[in-house]
Amino acid sequence: MDDLILAALRDNSRASAAAIARQLGLAPSTVKRRIEALNSEGTITRFTIETATRPLDARAIVEVYCRGNASVSELREIVAELPHVSLAVTVAGAADAVIVVEGATSAQVSSTIETLRMSPRIERTRTSMVFQDLLT
Questions:
Q1: The predicted structure's pLDDT at residue 134
Q2: Could you give the C-alpha distances from 119 to 78, 92, 128, 133, in angstroms and in order?
Q3: Which domain holds residue 72?
């Protein structure tokens, strides 16, 4: 019975004991008592929810050019402070690094790029806004 209750909670951690009882053909008081016991004994360690993913409508690819020779650890520190960065890599070529910035709005993306540009180690950036993914 506990395995069935746990499976129901994995499917929907917010389901009430009454809803699980209906689903499993059990008494609500039995389900409630078993959930409390599973929680007390540590079998259930937390209840969670999943949220719908917000679409990321704005994306930019940013080439980063540093003043002098920036180390990888310096670049990591700079990028670690930035919100909305989904990818950050060092590259061979003219740029020192390339980052991908994704946000729900172009304002989020723009704000992240402006914050990057304020770093004293950053000489300049070159930004390409993404319009359409060709692989999906």
A1: 86
A2: 7, 22, 20, 30
A3: 58-129
